[in-house]
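re the bet — no i am not wrong, look at it urself. input seq straight from the record:
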Amino acid sequence: MRRLAVVVVSSVVGLGLVVAPSPAGAGVKAGARAVGAGAGVKAGETGAGRAQAVRVPGVVPVPVSIRATRGAYAITSSTRIVAAPHDKAASYLAHLLRRSTGYALPIVGSGGGIVIDSAGGTGLPAEGYRLSVSGHGILIKADSGEGAFRGVQTLRQLLPAKAEKSTRQHGPWVVKGVQIEDYPRFSYRGAMLDVARHFFTVSQVERYIDLAAGYKVNYFHLHLGDDQGWRIQIKSWPRLAKIGGRTAVGGDRGGYFTQREYAEIVKYAQRRYVTVVPEIDTPGHTNAALAAYAKLNCDGKARKPYTGTNVGFSSLCTSKEITYRFLDDVIRELAAITPGPYLDLGGDEAQSTKQPDYVRFMSRVQKIVHKYGKSLMGWEEIAAARLDADDVPEHWNPVTGTQDGTQLARSAAKKGLKLVMAPADHAYLDMKYTKKTRLGQDWAAIVEVKRAYGWDPAKLITGVGEDDVRGVEAPIWTETMRTMNDLEYMAYPRLPAIAEIGWSPRASHSWASFRSRLAAQGPRWAARDVDFYRSPQVFQ
């Protein structure tokens, strides 16, 4: 835990004026409407040439390239969605639009309208897509269902904000002409939710996933075990959930997911092309397990349930064989219901475990994770052990140049490991926006939206460059979060900032552009009843 060339946008609810350099000789494709000389904007272009101005939508994350074109397409009662049978992107879009438009929007195998083609042929990187809108229709073309789904998330931002409503609204439903080509900078773009300190229900977790997926987040890191609570049923160790799941911070209501409920969350995420990464923190942050089973303690005595917020006081007994039998069972059961490639064993703030014992412990449990066909993920402390190339340390320590976390991240990169970057002083969504924010903490930093956006994962730590980074993550720890409204207030508008850092080209990074495009999301969040923070940096 723990503790794009520069683009300038002037936006009015979702539509902006983008000024960017145009490469010499840039042309205008047939049907494109030029504003100035040429109408194409490629995120991060820096080639020589005169400036150009193009009105483009307020899309977050900003696409790799976007071109305003002539015409517009109106979705009507006769519109059809054309896609292959059982296409998840088409089903998702149909469900979204049927509620707000009231139209039937049948999914058919041929014809015109909204065409979703994931049969391939684009040659784009993984998750890439092309989206074109003209007076004749809408086409999303990708090499995979995943890419098509990312394209659908962009399309929904081109629609009026009322399209996000769950009840029927009055049209028109017009999408202005545009051509977009897009693909991600990093393969891992995560959101982490702590359900251990405060428990959240299946429906709440699913809403959190759905909101994040709208910004092309593709990993959902679910923190299931900590000192305050154990939140997943382990059939071979039933007291973990029945005893360890009773408590929460401040004596609030506990809870846990049955394996069937966890599987529902996984399937829900899969339909959105989001991979679930379950985390059981070890060897520290384990008081809930130590309270459930006395034999996991070195002295054989069960610990008292804990409802506070301190860290570093608990530890599994790394010298007892029962510890490894316990973890083998937990990992085996989790691996069987987790189709994704990673199991996260935490590894942070193990202050009650001596460092030599910690290294031996992590080296041993790593082998258990691998035995069940998964790669180990954990906080950057796990880099003290010898890891395989597919194992993933996650940087979280605020950068001071001297802290252990910074050194561990640099050491991991030297070993050839690819890191997920989640610096607490930029990416932690539980940090306060201002000193007066009623929720959250401030131990890492005060993190307003501009600070959340104002970092580059490939420049944050000397010695950790672009090729050393697997991606980014936005964690939210829930010591002070009790309700869904609390989560949404702290996550939005900052989570989209982290998502854009992970998706959009490095050269497209521009606070002025992002602020304007982010402001366009406000009406969309309001339409979905998201209780977002009205940052004065964004909403004026």
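see?? The radius of gyration is 24 Å. told u. also The first strand starts at residue 8 and ends at 12. so pay up
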